[in-house]
Design brief:
This protein is an alpha/beta fold. It has 41 helices and 14 strands. The radius of gyration is 34 Å and the shape is globular. About 1% of the residues have low confidence.
Length: 914
Amino acid sequence: MAECRFQLLGPVQLFAGDVAVPIGGPGVRGLLALLALKPGKVVGLDEIIDALWGHDPPATARTIVHGNVSHLRRILRDIDGPSILTTPPGYLLAVEPERVDVHRARSLLDRASLATPETAAALLAEALALWQGPALGGVPDSLRAPELEDLRLAVHGARVDADLDLGRHAELIVELSPIVRADPLAERTAGQLMRALYHAGRRGDALELYRTVSRATLRTLGVEPGAELRWLHERVLNDDLPVRDVVAPAAAEPEKAISQLPAAVPSLAGRADELAWLDGLVTRAEAGETTIAVVTGTAGVGKSTLVVWWAHRVASRFPDGVLFASLRGFDPHHPPLEPAELLTQFLLGLGVETAKIPELLHERVALYRSLIAGRRMLVLLDDARTAEQVRPLLPPSARTMTVVTSRSRLDGLAVSNAAKQRVLGTLPPDDAVRLIEELAGPAALNHALARLCGYLPLALRIAGARLSASAQRTAEELVDELGNERTRLAGLQVEGADDGVRAAFDVSFRGLPGEIAETFLQLGAVPGVMVGPHLMAAVAQIPVTEARRRLRALAAHNLIEETARDVFAPHDLVWLYLRELAEHELGEKERDEALGWTVRYYQAVADRARRRLGHVADPLDFTGVLAEEAMPPLTGFGEAQEWFAAEWPNLLAALDAAYTAGRYDDVWRLALLGHRYRVVCPLLDEWTRMADLGVAAAEAVGDVEGQCWLRLARCEIALTFELPGYGFADAERAVALAAGSADAWLTTSADLHLGRALSRRGEHQKAIDRLTKAIAQAPDVTLRGRALSSCAQAEKRAGRLAEAVAHQLEGLAADRSLGDDDRIVVALDKVADLSLRAGDLEAAERYVWEAIDLAISREFVAREGALRLTLGRVLRARGDLDGAREQLALSVRIYERVHPKLVGEVRTELAELQ
């Protein structure tokens, strides 16, 4: 069978060899394009629907996608092509990237970057030939991939560069002239055409082209052309434009290259990506671009070590020398150096006599710039505090490269000087271990030691130095010392108060502006592993916009990181420093107020979120605790579920901190508020810990209502995970505690849980009687629907299928009337199972597919595992053994992650089908 390939760079088509295979209309083409753009990766069902229909999908969108997937599978199977796999939460095209033209074009571009000009030109011409028209032709208008046009421009630009290197100037003039006439703002292409004109002997035309582009940018954008085009113009005016990658002789070349670099470490652990990034910028500088790099990151992450080591490696590529200065931006003993002092240092290095150094700053700047103009130099500015400190030191020459390191991001340099930024993170685990071993040799516990150091290079070097300095100190002892969070920072200290991790962080903190430092302090009193602007606003009692500004200011100082939009988290060791700082610099009252506002925030938002997940039966209501604008909006089910998932570690940390502080009323209420999320997305250990803490808190404060609700939560856990006893003891105790209560929701909920536990224990009649009572006494449709569904399950176990189907359908109708998606999924699964048992296989499959679609859209992962099991059983009953095997295998995969105690049953069923 001919090789299958996919065309996306033009009309979307499938080929078997050179023969186009008909695949269908825009919807099918769009689906194939989405899968082929990410070969070997899962494309989510929601992502597919959004791409194909935008914000207004039809009600049958999921069904349409399922049908189109089946259609494509048949086509691919007929031509012996790759498979489309169902992989939650969507689909995966199992194909090698080289069989998709987009990925082949990227591969050719990558290969060309390492090839000689002759080879590169051929590879890039081959890549350009893959475009058969506008990319993604014939797909719905809502499906866009602008990165494909960026790829085409990158390939074309690289091919033109290769042709310039080969001297094909006349051909390029013919090719590029109409492109620049059509779009004079395309500066890269204009620059390439200027080079071609100049080297073809048409210097006047090159200058006129620059004037045309300059007029266009001024008229359209209000600015001059970019630095590279201005440099080209200057070279053409001076009639000294070199061929690409050949630099004109430097003016006033010194007798000996300047070298002010400090010593580098003997070897550098890791940092391959960062070194490649810096090397790439050198290449751009050599090609005539003005290049400024800013390497930023938290204290102790190894910015200076990286840059100095790299500079020694590439110094030979800067024949006019290397200038280096420590700007002392974050020196604990000295103020930051002024630009005038730094310029004096550089001027002396450039050979200017002391007596001839000007007095005035602007005169020093002018002399410095005139001395290095036209030279190929590297300028390293280490430990800068602000962009203002750096700007006077920036060279004017397009062939000089400047590298700045700073704990702050120096965004101003990116805005005003087009600086390229790189945030330096901690080391990967293996590189971190290598760093320790360079100092102390290999040891079995080095991985544990690296983890306790948070993979921060400064901490790793201290740990390695401590081990190597004393033959008596063992790795086991150091791991034990660092394993205690309260003594870890002290363990990462060496002789001299300013040489440890704590001291490095302290310098960063002491340099913060007043209100930003105050916010940083308050962070130390907030339990959890991350913080967002809404929580920070509640703790600091400031508007959300101001809290976001302050958090982003801290991120700009690299004391915390914005890991996702509005999600801020510090490094592990910074968290420990924060905790210590809050304990020493905040009073007990201030820390208690911060904890109180944290708990109130989570109570208010968790209450809002759980109501978006479905109807609640308990009487807790925190509406009005926080102003509307102080809370995330959480407009629907999906946003509420995402909020709970993101905030769950913080919510558990708030529970622990509140319990330790004796806030027992707050604890049981917050535990009950979080219970609803775990009903929807169950995880045994975390759910159990939360419920146990809630019961203990309610008992500690003697709150009977709290004890009842949290015991029912524990019963729910036992029923969900089929734990021994099925929660009977908790349900029975809750019924006894609720006896005589006027709260109908509480008494009905207690009867409901006790009936479910009795049913699972095999006491069918007792269960049906108890659940029938709950149906009759239910105070609203929410509880009545749950009682109906539970009664149906009890009747199923008792062998009363007809009554069970009737009650389950009545319960499903109740859940649909409430719009409770979680309950609808559960009810559909149950009615599908009952239909299977009753022999109505068509209805069973219909119900379970509806439930699977809803579970996937709502990310009910555990529910989906149960549904795949039900569907596998239905398909097996219908004789579709291949389909049954696929669904049971998916169920096993899901249960291994979220329901390991039940995976054995599914594996057994799957084995029977092998």
